Amino acid sequence: MGCGDFVVGSKIRPLCGLYIACDIVAPLIEYNKNKYQKLNVDFRTLNLNSDNLPSADVVFIRQVLQHLSNSDIKNIIPKLAQNYKYLVLTEHLPITENFIHNLDMDTGPNLRLELDSGVVLTSPPFNLEVEDKKIMFEVPLRGGVVTTTIYKLKTKNK
Predict the structure, then answer these.
(1) Which of 3, 45, 55, 116 has CB 3.0 to 4.6 Å from 21, enough for a Cys bridge?
(2) Mapping DSSP to helix (H, G, I), strand (E, B) and coil, where does residue 70 land?
């Protein structure tokens, strides 16, 4: 979700069977359909908050949640456990370990990083239930750290 320009997704694609790439920006999806047509990817325009999500084993959400309000994120949490076994989440977090998790903000182009906060799904008010989690990598960037974490979700219907 949040496939963007699909530069990162195109590197992951060879490791997957069926690959569904989604973004809320319709012109970007059309661009990707043309540019990456040889990669056999199902590109879809999708709103993570309001649309039904396709089922799969793994969902990648890359730097999307940091732009959403807590209310919007709370709407997404149940969909994750219903549709996926694993969540690979990349978010831009403050560089300090003791930052305040999940300060609320309006959905839009701003980042929680500007509030010295970041999205941590296993913390209140989200409390995502997971069986396991592991930080895969962290990359310092613009006063913060872009962190990719893989979660094994406690699934509800699988």
Answers:
(1) 3
(2) helix
135-149, pLDDT tens digit by residue? Answer: 999 999 988 999 999
pTM for the model: 0.91
How many CA atoms lie less than 13 Å away from 80 in the CB half-sphere?
Answer: 28
CA torsion angle for 128, 108, 33, 56 (degrees, to 10)? 10
The domains of the chain, with CATH numbers, are: 1-46 (no CATH), 47-153 (3.40.50.150)
Residue in the block written with tokens 């649309």: 51
Tokens of 63: 């730097």
Question: Is 122 within 8 Å of 133 (Cβ atoms)?
Answer: yes
Structure tokens belonging to residue 151: 């979660």
Helix extents (H) in 65-112: 70-83
84, burial (CB in 10 Å: exposed 0-12, middle 13-18, buried 19+): buried
Q: Could you tell me the pLDDT band of residue 158, with boundaries at 50, 70 and 90?
A: very low
